Amino acid sequence: MTIYLPALRRCSLFHNMADETILKLCQCLGGTIRQYPRGTILLLAGQPVNSAGIVLTGQLHAEQQTLGGEHIIVANHTAGSLFGDILMSGSRLSPVTLTATTNLTVLYFAMETILGDCGQHCQCHLQLRQNLLVGISEKFWAQQKKIGYLSMPSLRRKLLSYLLDQRTTDSDLDIFLPYNREELASYLGVNRSALSRELGRLQKEGILTFHKRQITILDLSRLLTQLSR
Amino acid sequence: MTIYLPALRRCSLFHNMADETILKLCQCLGGTIRQYPRGTILLLAGQPVNSAGIVLTGQLHAEQQTLGGEHIIVANHTAGSLFGDILMSGSRLSPVTLTATTNLTVLYFAMETILGDCGQHCQCHLQLRQNLLVGISEKFWAQQKKIGYLSMPSLRRKLLSYLLDQRTTDSDLDIFLPYNREELASYLGVNRSALSRELGRLQKEGILTFHKRQITILDLSRLLTQLSR
DNA sequence: GAATTGACGTTGCTATGGCAACATTTGGAG
DNA sequence: CTCCAAATGTTGCCATAGCAACGTCAATTC
């Protein structure tokens, strides 16, 4: 288990915990490790879920099938990601299919052991549950932000409000996008070429400059004006 | 406390629990009741949160201020609603402002008492935490659905995919909307009159009929075609 | 170095849908 | 019943943005 510490340290569940605590908890929770070759389906949409998993090595994604038959990727999990925590809907049937996009190692915990008493009254168990809740809350508010962008009435506003949120601080003017154009367009629910066009316009107007994924805001006050009117 | 049982029974936290269990838990968790006149701000965005609340009587809403300065309503809570459960983001600062839209009675629980051991190893405490998680998950997937609608490329598809989800069963063809036109348009992120126009077109094409909030699907297969192409 | 591929920018065409302004309906209030 | 206000339907105008098609650039392969 010690080999996987780097991944475990990154997991939201173990946020702010000492290495020994993490290892002790893994034991206490009775986690089981599984490995899957690339392409394996870990869980099919519509199946019940009773455990959460932490990605130790590799990558997986959660995708949902729309009524139209397309697949939308709800989440992408890399080393340290917790998944399955919010798959327990009321009926306990998963809305998404989980697929390994690379060879994959996963550590599973039964949800009940996280939520239940371990009988030892350990402080760390409380912390664990708080971390669980904080982690889920963050997923929720990340989604809420996305809804904010999607609800904007124009492409320009979608883009600008997204860019503002991507700054690391309020005074930061440089942004490095985590997506390429295609992915960004898809995230914002707009057409790729229309997105490129809008970026070009913003540059021509002197509001920002960009090169590939690197974007620099030139005129923050004018940018903000665009959003409020 | 017994007066409030009807509201408590409806709360996701106490789903599938007997009345005595609910009352016992309320005591065990050390809940405190507060009352507020209409218009009171219960929590200002940016403030830390350490407790969750259940609406006993009245109504409140959570609203978020956008960068542009507008307010968007994130949630609306009526009797039995649990709120504050997902306000614990990483920094523990609330992204939303909570305001009483009517006179209001609320039962608060410290989050720690829900997550921590009560020292009695009661089975109901485990159930409580599971209910908490299920409740939050449901909020997440409700949001996910909204994202699905907003991501659709046309007003028609936004509307139709929403309508399909509103059916109570897969074979049900009658829908009673929970929103008026204005609210529905806002929810779907489109213009009200454009929404009305699209509804009119769908009716003219014989795909559905409607009268106010009552909508009836006439040609389900053709409706589905519209979504897939 | 030629060729291939993938990411990104550019542009003309056109449908979609936002907007505004007005018409119609409905459900109370008096 | 009459009047009023709120909700909803209707329509013309036009900007926005989707779409397709193509051009450019850089990296990689052979």
Query: Which pair of protein chains has the largest interface, and what are the residue counts?
Result: A-B, 50 and 50 residues
> Would you report the number of β strands of chain A?
11
**What is the CATH architecture descriptor of the largest domain in chain A?**
Sandwich
Do you know the CATH topology of the largest domain in chain A? Jelly Rolls
The sequence of SSEs of chain A as H and E is HHEEEEEEEEHHHEHHEEH
Radius of gyration of chain A: 21 Å
Strand order in the largest sheet of chain A: 1-8-3-6
Give the domain tally of chain A.
2
Shape of chain A: elongated
Oligomer category: homodimer
Q: What's the helical proportion of residues of chain A? A: 40-55%
Q: Cα distance, first to last residue of chain A?
A: 55 Å
Q: Biggest sheet of chain A, open or closed, and with what strands and sense?
A: 4 strands, antiparallel
Provide mean pLDDT of chain A, rounded: 92
Low-confidence stretches of chain A: none
The CATH class assignment of the largest domain in chain A is Mainly Beta
**Count, helices of chain A:** 8
* Helix/strand class of chain A: alpha+beta
Assigned CATH superfamily of the largest domain in chain A: Jelly Rolls
* Portion in strands of chain A: 15-25%
